[in-house]
C-alpha cells in the first residue's frame, strides 16, 4: 500500500515539477539539482536568483498548512539579487527583493513569513500614488546562517538576523539582531540569549 501511495504521489507531482522547471529556466535562476520544491513556486521579475544545494521550498497548502493557502513568491526588480544558501528551508513565504536579500546557510524561514527590502512607495504623501517603486527607500536584508524565523513574521528593509538567532512567530523585525539571540514582538525586541533554553516556546 505504501508503494502505491508513493507512486500516486510521484505521478501527481509531475505537472508541478514541469511547471517549476519552466519557471526557473525562464527567470534564469541559478540552482542545484538537489533543489526540492513542494507545490508551485511563483517568481516575478528578472533580478538575479542564486539557490544553493539541498534547499527545500514548500509552496502549497498541503506541503505546510501552517503558512495558510499561499505559495512561496520571489519578486525582484531588474538588477536586484536574491541569494539563498545551502540547506535553507522556506515555507509558503514571500521575498520581495528590490536591492539585495541574502539568506544564509541552513536558515529556516517559517510559514507565511514576509521579507521586504523596500518601502515599496515614496514616503512623500503628495507623490505616493503616482511615484515609481524605484523611488522607494531600499536597504539590503541579511538572514544569518542557521537562523530561524517563526511563522507569519515580517522582516523589513535594512534588517539583519544573526547566526543561529530565532525570531518568534508573528514578529516584525526592523533592525539588526545579534548572533545567538531570541527576539519577538512588534517591533521585535530581545527576549534572551538563544543558549538559555532555545527549545522553549517563543
Tell me the major beta sheet: 8 strands, mixed
String of helices and strands: HEEEEEEEEEEEEEEEEEEEE
Radius of gyration: 18 Å
What helical percentage do the residues reach? 10-25%
Key features?
single chain; 202 residues; mainly beta; 8-stranded mixed β-sheet; 6-stranded parallel β-sheet; 1 helix
Mind sketching the topology for me?
Elements: H1 2-26, E1 36-39, E2 42-44, E3 48-51, E4 56-59, E5 73-76, E6 81-84, E7 89-91, E8 94-97, E9 100-103, E10 108-109, E11 114-116, E12 141-143, E13 148-149, E14 154-155, E15 160-161, E16 166-167, E17 172-173, E18 176-177, E19 181-185, E20 188-193
Parallel strand pairs: 1-4, 2-5, 3-6, 4-7, 5-8, 6-9, 7-10, 8-11, 9-12, 10-13, 11-14, 12-15, 13-16, 14-17, 15-18, 16-19
Antiparallel strand pairs: 19-20
Amino acid at each position: 500500500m505504501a508503494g502505491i501511495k508513493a507512486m500516486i504521489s510521484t505521478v501527481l507531482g509531475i505537472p508541478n515539477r514541469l511547471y517549476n522547471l519552466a519557471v526557473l529556466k525562464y527567470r534564469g535562476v541559478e540552482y542545484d539539482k538537489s533543489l526540492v520544491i513542494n507545490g508551485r513556486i511563483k517568481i516575478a521579475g528578472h533580478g538575479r536568483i542564486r539557490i544553493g544545494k539541498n534547499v527545500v521550498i514548500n509552496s502549497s497548502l498541503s506541503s505546510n498548512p501552517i503558512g495558510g493557502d499561499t505559495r512561496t513568491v520571489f519578486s525582484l526588480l531588474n538588477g536586484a539579487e536574491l541569494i539563498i544558501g545551502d540547506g535553507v528551508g522556506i515555507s509558503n513565504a514571500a521575498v520581495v527583493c528590490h536591492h539585495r536579500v541574502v539568506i544564509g546557510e541552513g536558515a529556516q524561514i517559517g510559514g507565511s513569513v514576509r521579507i521586504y527590502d523596500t518601502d515599496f512607495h515614496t514616503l512623500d504623501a503628495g507623490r505616493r500614488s503616482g511615484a515609481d517603486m524605484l523611488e522607494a527607500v531600499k536597504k539590503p536584508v541579511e538572514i544569518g546562517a542557521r537562523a530561524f524565523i517563526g511563522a507569519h513574521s515580517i522582516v523589513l528593509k535594512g534588517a539583519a538576523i544573526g547566526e543561529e538567532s530565532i525570531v518568534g512567530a508573528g514578529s516584525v523585525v526592523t533592525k539588526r539582531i545579534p548572533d545567538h539571540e531570541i527576539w519577538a514582538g512588534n517591533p521585535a525586541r530581545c527576549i534572551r540569549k538563544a543558549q538559555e533554553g532555545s527549545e522553549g516556546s517563543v
